[in-house]
Design brief:
GO terms for molecular function: ubiquitin protein ligase activity; zinc ion binding. Keywords: Metal-binding, Transferase, Ubl conjugation pathway, Zinc, Zinc-finger. The protein contains five helices and three strands, in the order H-H-H-E-E-H-E-H. The protein has helices spanning 2-16, 22-28, 60-82, 114-121, 140-146, and strands spanning 103-106, 111-112, 136-139. It has 153 residues and is mainly α. It folds into two domains: 2-82, no CATH class; 88-153, 2-Layer Sandwich (Herpes Virus-1), CATH 3.30.40.10. The structure holds zinc ion (ZN) (2 copies). One zinc ion is lined by residues 105, 108, 110, 127, 129-130, 132.
């Protein structure tokens, strides 16, 4: 259970890091993903670097763990890309990815940061995600804390 939670935590941290790239791990494992342009590893005679070549230092079990993690990350990032809704209140605004989510639209319940929705509402009244007409914008903290949605402004 603890290990699973750690994996989830690591996954969300890695996927939230804009510098993290799955191809980096693919590359470490010697999987077919070309190195970034500019690296000098592509000399004709040089064997491609792969963790699989270093069995003295990395045993099969460890290698399997890395491969497992890669598979997990691959599916998690695919899910994250496919999901249109944030999965936790810690998520960043899905519009700008610069601010945390701070506003909930009524009545559809979709979310963004206040900067995005305030700017959007100057010209539009439809939800970014489902195009429902937004009647009001609630404070995300308030909605999250009370668990209820009030129509008061
Ligand atoms: Zn935003
Ligand atoms: Zn919506």
């Amino acid at each position: 259970m603890v290990e699973e939670a750690l994996t989830e935590r690591a996954t969300s941290v890695l996927l939230a890091d804009p510098c993290f790239q799955l191809r980096s791990i693919c590359y470490l494992l010697g999987q077919p993903d070309p190195p970034a342009p500019g690296t000098s590893l592509s000399a004709p005679d040089r064997k491609r670097f792969s963790l699989q070549s270093y069995t003295d230092y990395i045993n099969a079990e460890e290698l399997a763990q890395v491969e497992q993690m890669l598979a997990h990350l691959t599916s998690a990032s695919a899910q994250a890309a496919a999901a249109s809704l944030p999965t936790s209140e810690e998520d960043l605004c899905p519009i700008c990815y610069a601010h945390p989510i701070s506003a909930v639209f009524q009545p559809c319940g979709h979310k963004s940061c206040k900067a995005c929705i305030n700017q959007h509402l100057m010209n539009n009244k439809d939800c970014f995600f489902c195009k429902a007409t937004i009647e009001s914008v609630e404070d995300w903290d308030k909605v999250a804390n009370t668990g209820t949605i009030s129509s008061a402004t």
